[in-house]
Design goal:
There is one protein chain. With 197 residues, this protein is α+β, with helices and mostly antiparallel strands. The protein has 2 domains: 1-37 and 138-161, no CATH class; 40-130, Umud Fragment, subunit A, CATH 2.10.109. Helix content is 31%, strand content 24%. It contains 4 helices and 7 strands. It is elongated, with a radius of gyration of 31 Å. Residues 165-174, 179-183 and 186-197 have low confidence and may be disordered. This is S26 family signal peptidase. One of its GO terms (molecular function) is serine-type endopeptidase activity. Residues 186-197 have a biased composition (Basic and acidic residues).
């Protein structure tokens, strides 16, 4: 007796379920890290921190009080216009109210930023991965969101949609008995589908 083999629809359903579960787990881990550990993902869109962190890198940062910042830290703050600036701290001056004036400069820049940033807390980069920021940036575009929705819908249809075990018009299935007795086929179907005894 041979072991049963999985049909292609069943394999596709299992792959879709496993892929969906893996992606769901990654999303859950990312959301948990952001919520409980205060980790913020940062996409480096310019080369001002090259070669340490090149354009297109994905950085991970955690929020710390400004008084904990030290020269040499890679720090991300909002400037006066609300733009996110991620450069290296070159000087940190604590202020009386617990905030700090942080002077920063990009590694690729010849001069420091125009003015210090006065902040009570800031995001300090502790890890980065080159090129991964391109993928994260693309995933936030409308096209990627649309394709993600289509993929999720397709996976749901494959995973939970009704599958057919037989093909239409298969003569073997049309002639197969619906019910059979223990030894004498007492309940075999006749041509019009009504059992006879």
């Amino acid at each position: 007796m041979t072991a049963p083999t999985r049909t292609p629809p069943r394999r596709a359903r299992e792959i879709a379920l496993n892929l969906g579960a893996a992606l769901g787990l990654l999303c859950l881990l990312a959301a948990s890290a952001s919520l409980f550990l205060g980790i913020t993902p940062l996409v480096f869109r310019s080369g001002s921190m090259a070669p340490t962190i090149p354009t297109g890198a994905l950085g991970l940062a955690t929020s710390v009080p400004a008084v904990e910042l030290e020269p040499g830290d890679i720090v991300s703050v909002d400037d006066a216009t609300g733009d996110r600036i991620t450069h290296r701290a070159i000087d940190v001056e604590p202020l009386a109210d617990g905030s700090a004036a942080v002077r920063m400069r990009g590694d690729a820049n010849d001069a420091p930023d125009r003015a210090p940033y006065v902040v009570s807390e800031a995001d300090r980069v502790f890890f980065h991965v080159d090129h991964l920021g391109y993928a994260v940036a693309w995933l936030s575009t409308p096209v990627a969101i649309f394709l993600g929705g289509m993929l999720a819908g397709g996976a749901a249809v494959i995973a939970f949609g009704r599958t057919r075990n037989t093909q239409e018009g298969d003569p073997a299935d049309a002639d197969s008995p619906a019910l059979t007795g223990a030894g004498d086929n007492r309940f075999a179907r006749d041509e019009d589908g009504i059992g006879r005894g």
